[in-house]
From TrEMBL:
Keyword field: 2Fe-2S, Iron, Iron-sulfur, Metal-binding
Source organism, top-level taxon: Eukaryota
Record-linked Gene3D superfamilies: 3.10.20.30
Cofactor requirements of the protein: [2Fe-2S] cluster
Keyword Zinc appears in the UniProt entry: no
Protein family (similarity comment): Belongs to the adrenodoxin/putidaredoxin family.
InterPro entries in UniProt: 2Fe-2S_ferredoxin-like_sf, 2Fe-2S_ferredoxin-type, Adrenodoxin-like, Adrenodoxin_Fe-S_BS, Beta-grasp_dom_sf
One GO cellular component term noted in the UniProt record for this chain: mitochondrion
Name recorded for this polypeptide: 2Fe-2S ferredoxin-type domain-containing protein
An example Gene Ontology molecular-function term: electron transfer activity
Residue stretches making up the 2Fe-2S ferredoxin-type domain: 30-131
CDD domains: fer2
Record organism: Emiliania huxleyi (strain CCMP1516)
Length: 132
């Protein structure tokens, strides 16, 4: 019996491995919009990227001076209330940084702390400015 199991394991190790995921999973992107100085910038971003990474990849002027290390508030974004309510609440460290943010609102979050997921589909993220 042990010999049979060893042979089976040897065959499995020698067999080429295939990646088991659907083509859809490989190409899944989430579409949402950044609003910068009143101008809408539609983007399509892979799951798992931060909003800061998404902004930089799409030439949206979201600074992120600390490169996402949670040491500043320059990637501050304003979320729609409905989306804000769906997300887990910000951690204490994020709240501390948000206290320093320009144009803080009740639905403010830091872009470096939010990872793109399906709940972002169709959402709008506003960069704070003089008109917000």
């Amino acid at each position: 019996m042990r010999v049979a199991v060893r042979r089976l394991l040897a065959v499995r190790r020698a067999a080429p491995r295939t990646l088991r995921c659907s083509a859809r999973a490989l190409s899944d992107k989430v579409s949402f919009t950044f609003v910068e100085e009143g101008e809408e910038v539609p983007v399509a971003v892979e799951h798992g990227k931060t909003l800061l990474e998404a902004a930089h990849a799409n030439e949206v002027d979201l600074e992120g001076a600390c490169d996402g290390s949670l040491a500043c508030s320059t990637c501050h974004l304003i979320l729609e209330q409905e989306l804000y309510d769906q997300l887990p609440p910000p951690e204490e460290e994020e709240l501390d940084m948000l206290d320093l943010a320009f144009g803080l609102t009740d639905t403010s979050r830091l872009g470096c702390q939010l990872k793109v997921g399906p709940e972002f589909e169709g959402a709008k993220f506003t960069l704070p400015g003089p008109d917000t």
